[in-house]
Amino acid sequence: MGQRRGGLIAAYLLVLGLIAASAAFVFGVEGDTPRIADRAAAAAPVTTGSLPVPPKVLPPEPAPPEPPPLKPALFRGFAPAELRALIEVTEEGQRLPRVSPSGWMPWIAYARRFDPAGPPARVGVLMINLGASEKLMRRAIDELPGEVSLAFLAATPDLPRWLREAREHGHEAYLMLPVEDPNGPAERGLRPLQASAEPAENLRRLRAAMARGAGYVGFVIASAGPVSQSESAVRPLLKEIADRGLAVIEINPTPATAAVHRLTVELGTGYARTADVLDYKLADGGVAGNLDRLVAWAGETAPEQPPRHGFGVMQPDDEAIDALLAWFRRRPERPAASFVPIIGHFECRDACMARMRAQPAQLRP
Predict the structure, then answer these.
(1) Is residue 250 within 8 Å of 276, Cβ to Cβ?
(2) How far is residue 48's CA from residue 256's CA, in Å, rounded to a whole number?
(3) If you ran DSSP here, which 8-state letter would residue 95 be given?
(4) What is the chain's mean pLDDT, rounded?
(5) Integer CA distances (angstroms), 92 to 156, 207, 304, in order
(6) How far apart are CA 65 and CA 297, in angstroms?
(7) Which uninterrupted H or E stretch holds 81?
């Protein structure tokens, strides 16, 4: 009987020990606390008196920065119907530029955009007479910065393709006015404009040149020759150019009061003029030296003096292209003048502005 009582007491004590051990395991009472108790305590809210303290809330992660705004397209975008409206198809099948019924003029519609927030002084480069050499034309389109504007001979073979590729590479495009010039390149397949020709015949020849391609801003008159110096010869030509919403660039060392300038003011078309030939062989420093002088002149400031702007022209040859590329590579990060396409050098006087105000969208950069 005594042995049985002793066995019961021992079993009773064993059960109590198991209960105590279980309590220590679960609640962490005395001794080393197992890791599961640590995790349970960490997950449980801390209490002070009878009020629970909520767990610490981490601040939300900052939102990622917004992407920078997209730069505007280099050229204005038009619906296919509006682009078709910029072309007139004549009874003879010629496709000629025109002012669209909604008022868009090709010289604005096809111009290259540029950032107006740069330095107010502006310089630019126009490469003229492209088309005689496919190799040089390819180099000019592919390698030169898009801010360099390009002027093609109207008789260039497969001209629509070259105009399209120039635009795809960011270049503003022009056509050379095919005037009679014994010192200029020959325009195969096109009869030149002549001071001695009848006005109707010159208009026919001009329209033949206009119809060679599409998407160009206007015409370049490369020298002060017999046509441009004769008001009776040049007036009907400039009126046709103005009526079709195209612009005029004149390369002319004579004062800007010449006939071409006066007629563009009267007829209300965009006009730009330069006397700077950047690849003039006898100039000190060549292309680079001439560009440096142009930038220095444009960057000069004086009280109450409006910002200056000017551009130069150059012929397409390997030496000139190499020199221009080298000049661009060494340009400072903060130049004294913005380098912009030739549209940034046009003037638009009263009659021209009156035409643009009829279509306010053309006034936006």
Answers:
(1) no
(2) 91
(3) E
(4) 84
(5) 21, 11, 54
(6) 42
(7) helix 80-85
The per-residue pLDDT for range 253-296, each reduced to its tens digit, is 776 568 999 999 999 999 999 999 999 877 788 999 999 999 99
φ, ψ of residue 57 to 5 degrees: the values are -100, 120
- pLDDT-derived band at 62, boundaries 50, 70, 90: low
Give the three-class secondary structure for 339: strand
**DSSP bridge pairs for 272:** 249
Tell me the angle at which helices 134-143 and 318-329 cross, rounded to the nearest 10 degrees: 10
Q: Which helix (H) or strand (E) holds 184?
A: none
CA distance 305 to 229: 32
Closest by alpha carbon to 173, among 205, 135, 137?
137
Tens-digit pLDDT profile for residues 305-314: 999 999 999 9
**Residue indicated by tokens 């563009």:** 264
Kindly state the helix (H) or strand (E) to which residue 300 belongs, with its residue range.
Answer: none
State the pTM of this model: 0.80
Query: Which pairs count as long-range contacts for 292-297, CB under 8 Å and 24+ apart, including other chains?
Result: 292/327, 294/123, 295/123, 295/335, 295/336, 295/337, 296/336
C-alpha closest to that of 328 among 280, 283, 295, 364: 295
Of 45, 47, 21, 44, the C-alpha closest to 34 is 21
Of the candidates 185, 201, 148, the residue with the CA atom closest to the CA atom of residue 341: 148
- Tell which residue, 175, 177, 182, 229, has the closest CA to residue 202: 177
